[in-house]
Amino acid sequence: MSHSKKILFSCLLVLFGPFLHASTFVGNGGNMGDIELQVAIQQIRDAILNLPDAAQPCQCELDEDDHPVCETLKSLTEDQQKYCGDVLQKQRTELLELLAKADRIQFRWSDEDLKVMEMGRPLSVDALANYEQQEILIQRNRFLSSSAHERIFLLSHELLHLAPWEGKPIKDEQNSGPFQEVQGGRHLLNAVAAQVVVQSYRKDLFDKYEGALNRSQNTKSHWLEAFAGISHQSEKTTSLTIEDFQNLRLAYRYHWDRLGVGLRFDTSRGTKTLFTRTKAEEQRQKWGVGLNYRIVLGSNPLTVWGQSHLILAAYLEMLQSRYKLDDGEVELQDGATAPGATVGCTYYTPARGGLWFSLGVEYSSFDYSYKGFSTLRSFDEKSRLGSVNLGVSYGF
Amino acid sequence: MDFKNFKGHKIQILLACLMSGLMIACTPATDVTPDEYVIGEKLDRVHGLNLASGHEPTSVALFDETIRKIHLFNLQNMSMAASFSVRNPEAAHYLLQHDDGNYILDLTTKSVALIQKTGRQILDPVKMVGNPLSAAFSSALGYAVLYYDTRSVGILKVSDQGEAQSSWVGGPLLDGNATVACGDISPDSRGRMILALSEYGKNDQIAIVDLPSTLENRSWVIEKQFVLPFSQVAWLAPLSDPDYILLRSQNKIALVQLSTGTVIDELALDQATVEKYSKRYSPHILMRNFAAEVSVDSLQLVYVTGAKLKVITLAKQPRTVVQSNLDIDRDEWTFIDRIGGAADGHSNANELKTNRTLTRYSLSSLATQQNFPLHDGTQIELSPSFLFTLYPNELGKASRTNILSEEVVEIAGFNVGWL
Questions:
Q1: Residues B2, B4, B5, B6: what is their CA dihedral angle, to the nearest 10 degrees?
Q2: Is this complex's ipTM strictly greater than 0.85?
Q3: Which residues of A touch B395 (CB under 8 A)?
Q4: Which residues from chain A sit within 8 angstroms of residue B412, using beta carbons?
């Protein structure tokens, strides 16, 4: 490989490196489902932390009787309830350590169906725990389509597979304590997981994290945007120069992670009065393609600040402008076309349901001429516009 | 005094006073009009197009009163040839232009500038010894004569390319006690100026001034001088035959032959007032006659043909003529009139810009060849065949209208160059 090719390859690696690895890391807020996963983990942690000091039997209370997880607990015998409560109490510290230390456990997403062989037959599952590798593999679509309590139930079950009990992992197909059937292990872990869900209800953990779940997430790939703003040019380069414009923009962005590409269309209009009564109006339309770079401002993606981000943008644009002069009787028009560039920085703050609000500043540069107005001279515009835009975006 | 008859005298005196009052009231006013007692034409009467009969101009210069610049238009292809900024743009500007558009004399009541078509400007090419009151100009000879409000006379010789070659300012006292009353440049090729001189208690004189020699000697050089049989010559116009001048004295219009120094023909003005003097293209005078035999509102055209004064009466012409072009060779009389005139009754076509109508007659038959209204608010120039109109648009709009066919060629947007 030649030296120049090595440099090019290095540049590409730096540029696209984040995308190549993005799907292998889970929980950092950068992948689809990370927020839901983090919320579920946080809810499990809060539920376990808030367990009573003494072991309590696993059972639903009256106001939770109608809940689906109570079906699991209602079927337990008194011994099983007590044993379930003891297991949860004794595994409490181990579970918290598993969740607290980043190097203890790894969550991985799978976009493929997950199957296990059980009793000689393939069984489709939502998640798989690997005790040796201390890893939980989650089927992403099924996880995201699950309700909040189902996610807690699922993850709690899989976490209990990774926490050794009496020196070894609990498997689904084993008996344990009063859970003596062939799949007593699964029955036990389902009971403990159901109790974690019940504990989450008791501590209002679903309400607590509802905001984080509903908040718009910056990890979306597709962005549709609309902006309205004003532009100003402080220096007149010709007598035709219009200093102030009103702008509208429609844009689409595609983001891998931090880096994205975009396509946008701008239309702007500015007016002023020349001589004493001649109305001048310039209408400008721009098509642009460019690169966007996202900087997330906060470290906790479950917070507003953790979703808020800046987009640094650099666009190459093609300008088509139309200038009209009208003194009430005589109307003149001329047009110009020119390439140019715009750079900008926009701050995005999340709303709900994928919607975002934004505030941005930009600087654009275009050089073009109106030659058709006068045979005596042409008007060479050096447009250097600073802009402020307010926008609303939808990420999906 | 016979005091016994004093009562009867009183009645006679009263009757005499009453009669005198009635006579004064019925006699036409003889106030000096703005066109009188000047050399050439008053500044607000001068025209950019000042060609002799039979010549169609190729360009026209106008001071655009909307954006306060001078525009030079090419009349052949109707385009903007050049445009110039002026000194004192806020002032009223009056233009005299070279026939081929090589230069423009830009006159204001405070200053003079010679503007070459390249844009080079020569400011005050002739010494300013007062405020210019009127100007006479011969594009063919390159002479411009300025008459100041101090009554001094400035003479400027300009080359064909618009270079100021020489100038001199003389006083109004030419010979003895006679001072300049009015005058103009002769159309002959010798560079002569015809002046009427007046002297207290005597009849007026005509002096023919040799302009080249006057400039060379820097003093008045009079080629010929003779006494007229009347006084108070207020206006004179050399005819296309340079041996004749048409003039107006206190109570006469007269045709004078220069070579013989004699009055060839004359017309009494006892009961008439002049409405318009015009030197284009055949000098003529328009007057209102209050004599009993002339119908009310009649307009009388006085001009020279066959070494005779001729008077044509146009009945029921109550509108005020603000510009009149008579072209005997082409048998055309074109004038612009309007309802109501200026306060002094002698407005020009670009002074009051409303309710104007252009009319062209066949001179020989007075058959109407054309009659159409002019756009209000526009500045106009008349050539033999065309009406040039400059509209009061900030972006610039002008049109050239063929007077007979009314075919219009329009251009617009030429002021954008000044944005």
A1: 80
A2: no
A3: 278, 325, 327, 330, 332
A4: 330, 332
